[in-house]
Structures are given as C-alpha cells and as structure tokens.
Amino acid sequence: MAKEAVLWNDVEVNVGWGILRGKTCVVDGGLEADNGLHIVGLHGWLDNCNTFDNLVPLLPTKSKVLVLDFPGHGWSDHLPLGAHYNPFVYACNIKTAVLKLGWKKFVLMGHSMGGAVSCVFTAIFPELVSALIIFDYVAPLSTRGFVEQCQIYAEDLLKSEKLALEPPLVYSEKEAIDRLIAARVFGYSDDATIDKEAAQILLPRSAREVDNGYVWSHDRKARPTFLVFISGKKWIETISAIKCPVLLIQATRGTNMFQIESLNKIYEIYRRNAQWFNVEVVEGCHHVHLTEPNHVAPSVTHFLEKVVNRKQPIQARL
Known about the structure:
Shape: globular
Strand order of the largest sheet: 1-2-4-3-5-6-9-10
Structural class: alpha/beta
C-alpha cells in the first residue's frame, strides 16, 4: 500500500495578528490535479503539521491537502502575552487562514487536540465542512469539577507566561528527539506513542536549530491544558451540532479506550445527529496515524469515497 512521498509546497497566511504557516500538496497528481476531495489537517497538542506526513501519501489519488500549524505551534507565530490559546481561538484562526487561502469547502481531519478543535470548528462553521475525520479523540473527560480544573489551568497558564519571557533552553539533537518521545505518553500504558522515526518527522517544525543545538518552536503559553472550557454538557452540545458525515478512528491503546461507557454515550450522540457516523478501532497508540498509517488509511479512504459519492453506509461499523 506504500506510495512515494508527496511534493509539499509551503504556505503562509497573515491572519491579522501574525502569520500561520503550513504546507499543501496534491496526492500523486501534481499541482493541477483534483479529484474533488479537499482535505484540511489539524495536528495535536504541541505537535505540528508534519504529523500527517506518513498518512497523506496513502490518501486517494489527486486529493488536495492543506495542513497548518496552529498558532503557537510549529512554524506559526505565537500569540502575544495576554492572549490565551483555546479551541475557539484556534478555530477562528483556522477559518481566517483557510478562507484567505481560497478553501471554501473541505473535509476536516484532526488528531487529538486537532480533533477537538475540528469538532468545535465544524459546529460553529458548518458551511465550510463537508465531512469530519477524527483520530483518537472522543471527549475531554475529567474526574475534576469545573472550578478545580480552572484553578489548575490558571496556575499553569500564569507559570507559562513567566517562562515565555525567559531565554529558551537549548538541546542537542538527541536530547530533543528523546524529549519529544518522552513527552508523548498517553493511553493504557507508560509507553510513548511515537518512536524515534516519528519524532524525527516532527522535529523540523517542533524545534529550530541554533548555534549550539535546538530550541523548541512552540509557545510555552500553549502548554497548559485548555479543554476544561468545552467539557461536560458543553462538549455534548458541541458535537450535537455536527450534522455532516463523521469518521472516528480509535486506537486500541489510545486515550479514551478505557472509558467504554462514556465512549458509547458519545457515539450515540454522533449517530443521532451526523449525516452518518462510522467508528473504526485500529491497532496502535495515540499517534497511530503517524506511526502506523497503514492501519488507518483503508478506513479513511473508504470513508472519503463515500463522502465523494454521498452514499450513506447501511450500518456504521463498530
């Protein structure tokens, strides 16, 4: 199933306060080819748009793909002090960027935090999204109350604002790779969800080279957890507003698989509201789309073909 690497072209767009950067390609088709599938990819927390490098070549031939670094991530500019990162801010900036780049209708594809932002985006800008693909993200589940979550978030945020004013730490290439791997431990086990090869794919946009090594590219203010603001009933209301076709791919060793009862409740909300809803459980960890793209590509391709043909499956696969 392997294909040759695609030819990416860098893009940047001024969204008013700064520049968002990313890249675009046409799968196996050259710049002028177009099969009608336009796909926008949104990466996970503290990752960058390189997270889709291994998957995109396996997408349907002649698909046009745009992937963007979120504000404060990868090569995109950082928000100024006093401006905070959250799903609504991310969604609004992505809308500004895609419209300025001429993308008016597309499939939205998000991993982890990018999946959460994709859901928010689809709920508030439904006219732009023809279908939604989510990799290993179901809901911002927490056992803490809202006030306690806000207290934790506020403490982390204020610390990060102070750190953002300090000189960045410098790491050797090996240290940067090791830290990228160690920072990505989610799900059932204590094993990292990316390997060295995946870390090397993320590194060029995760860090920038300086004289003595590498410094992180992401904004330290982007580190605090923000999902408290769309948890619980707010999340239910958000995904209830999603009416387009939805594909949710869950990794067997992913972030929410141990919360089966909660998963089933979320699945039912999608089924009641989306044009159609497919769930696929695939072998792998939280970053399965990056580390084992062959595990997810068949499901994604099958879903995209149905989106193009607008043929509703008889029954969602579970």
